[in-house]
């Protein structure tokens, strides 16, 4: 009998849990799967990851108190479209041309996604929010192929990209609800950098969309999905009453424009950004309350994380005494840790120990293999080739560091936002194949040093802040990491490690 089946049987007989999934005692558990992805929230923003945070996040903190915090979880790329591509496909985003997203789909036709994998397990799949993975655009009065409903989702309501990237319009399934026939002028906020505050770009906007209403609209759409699914289940409509729901809720916030509602204005100690982050937390709370109200919460595996790091500068830290990056160096788009190390929480009653923590290395690409492991479904060589299951971390009574688990992730390879560098993390060591941030932080790039050093090497166990470049001290290790990185770039990472 497979290890995963034995593990599931063990928990079935030793834990008092709600009756979920199939009635047969030897079947894998089938929870609802709820993935909540926020946008540009830093590692140091939620109170459960930073006791000194100046932003109140009681709902995110509640998820952590009732679940597991991962302290070493990473986006597969430190920008919106990179991160989402890896999450959806289990593939590193450097394996495709992510730059074509404004007019072309990033996900190939027929490519497995977490949604299509769930559909194969008879889940109802829904997405609400920011897609940012491209459509085959041919006029907004026409269908928009290549989006969520063409990649495994039964239904979609959302926007094509960020709420500062025009055109701005809602999409339901594969059609614009209303085309962006109006125009909106660009906007910036005095006292903030050009890409902070109430910043958005000029462009087309649909008559039915107001930028300050997008966040609560997505919350209501998500609640409608939850309540509608529960009504159908209770009525026994069309399918068996044990059909599960996968909901992917991708909030476009606290990414700019920072537009907190009146109830949150001036309520944080971190300025306009903190106020908006508090509103995001409150919207998450409304969705969690809807799951509880329908009786679905304790039958759900809930994953909450952020797509990449924050836009928060040193002067912001000095002004507010709040470090959105926490103990990490850098910001959004960077090769440095703040660009891609994310708050990551999993709540799953009866399986995940409350108020627990795992230091296991995790990447968003791993959600696919973890779900496949949960459902005891093998992945083909071309399905999630950069995905490793972290199910053992979730179901262990300790910190998830299961000895002898050969499938456990020990490496990550990524490309930062500039596209000019590559990064490999292997155990405690991190090599950045270039000098500078590789992203938004200055200096973005630096010419090789006079001593010949042309990269950065850090030991994250002893130097999480990446303050001591050991590149010149360990040339053999640098060579080994570069060679390993090249191998992974050429082949699927999971196949290489297997």
Architecture overview:
With 498 residues, this protein is an alpha/beta fold. It has 2 domains: 32-393, 3-Layer(aba) Sandwich (Alkaline Phosphatase, subunit A); 411-490, Arylsulfatase, C-terminal domain, CATH 3.30.1120.10. Helix content is 25%, strand content 15%. The chain has helices at residues 3-14, 58-65, 80-89, 114-120, 214-235, 271-293, 314-320, 366-374, 391-395, 475-490, 493-497; strands spanning 32-38, 68-74, 124-130, 155-159, 171-172, 175-176, 182-184, 203-205, 245-250, 300-306, 341-347, 356-358, 362-363, 411-414, 423-426, 429-432, 456-459. A hairpin with a 2-residue loop joins strand 15 and strand 16. Helix 5 runs parallel beside helix 6 (271-293). The two termini are 20 Å apart. Mean pLDDT is 92; it is low at 1-25 and 397-404. Keywords: Hydrolase, Signal. InterPro entries: Alkaline_phosphatase_core_sf (IPR017850), Sulfatase (IPR050738), Sulfatase_N (IPR000917). Residues 31-376 form the Sulfatase N-terminal domain.
A few lines on this structure:
With 498 residues, the protein is an alpha/beta fold. The protein is 25% helix and 15% strand. It has two domains: 32-393, 3-Layer(aba) Sandwich (Alkaline Phosphatase, subunit A); 411-490, Arylsulfatase, C-terminal domain (2-Layer Sandwich), CATH 3.30.1120.
């Amino acid at each position: 009998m497979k290890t995963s089946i034995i593990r599931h049987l063990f928990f079935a007989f030793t834990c008092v849990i709600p009756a979920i999934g199939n009635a047969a005692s030897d079947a894998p558990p089938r929870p609802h799967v709820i993935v909540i992805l926020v946008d540009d929230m830093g590692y140091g923003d939620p109170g459960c990851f930073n006791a000194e945070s100046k932003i109140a996040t009681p709902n995110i903190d509640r998820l952590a108190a009732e679940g597991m915090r991962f302290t070493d979880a990473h986006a597969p790329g430190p920008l919106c479209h990179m991160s989402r591509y890896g999450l959806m496909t289990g593939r590193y985003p450097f394996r495709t041309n992510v730059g074509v997203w404004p007019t072309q789909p990033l996900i190939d036709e027929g490519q497995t996604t977490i949604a299509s994998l769930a559909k194969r397990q008879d889940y109802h799949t829904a997405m609400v929010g920011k897609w940012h993975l491209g459509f085959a655009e041919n006029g907004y009065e026409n269908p928009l192929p290549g989006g969520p409903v063409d990649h495994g989702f039964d239904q979609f309501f959302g926007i094509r990209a960020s709420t500062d990237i025009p055109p701005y319009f809602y999409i339901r399934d594969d059609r614009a609800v209303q085309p962006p026939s109006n125009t909106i002028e660009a906007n910036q906020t005095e006292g903030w950098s050009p890409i902070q505050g109430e910043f958005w770009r000029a462009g087309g906007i649909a008559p039915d969309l107001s930028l300050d209403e997008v966040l609560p609209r997505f919350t209501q759409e998500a609640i409608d999905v939850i309540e509608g699914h529960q009504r159908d289940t209770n009525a026994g409509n069309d399918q068996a009453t044990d059909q599960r729901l996968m909901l992917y809720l991708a909030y476009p916030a606290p990414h700019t424009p920072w537009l907190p509602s009146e109830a949150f204005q001036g309520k944080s100690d971190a300025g306009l950004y903190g106020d908006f982050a508090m509103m995001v937390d409150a919207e998450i709370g409304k969705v969690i309350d809807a799951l509880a109200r329908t009786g679905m919460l304790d039958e759900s595996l809930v994953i909450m994380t952020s797509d990449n790091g924050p836009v928060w500068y040193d002067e912001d830290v000095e002004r507010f005494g709040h470090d959105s990056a926490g103990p990490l160096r850098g910001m959004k788009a960077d090769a440095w840790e703040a660009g891609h190390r994310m708050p990551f929480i999993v709540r799953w009653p009866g399986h995940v120990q409350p108020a627990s923590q795992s230091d296991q290395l995790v990447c968003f690409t791993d959600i696919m293999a973890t779900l496949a492991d949960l459902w005891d479904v093998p992945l083909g060589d071309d399905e999630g080739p950069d995905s490793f299951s972290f199910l053992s971390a979730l179901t262990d009574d300790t910190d998830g560091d299961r000895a002898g688990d050969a499938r456990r992730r020990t490496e990550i390879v990524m490309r930062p936002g500039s596209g000019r560098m590559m990064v490999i993390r292997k155990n405690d060591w991190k090599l950045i194949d270039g000098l500078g941030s590789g992203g938004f932080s200055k200096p973005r790039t630096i010419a090789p040093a006079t001593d010949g050093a042309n990269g950065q090497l850090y030991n994250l166990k002893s130097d999480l802040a990446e303050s001591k470049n050991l590149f010149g001290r360990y040339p053999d290790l640098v060579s080994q990491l570069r060679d390993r990185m090249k191998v992974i770039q050429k082949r699927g990472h999971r196949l290489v490690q297997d």
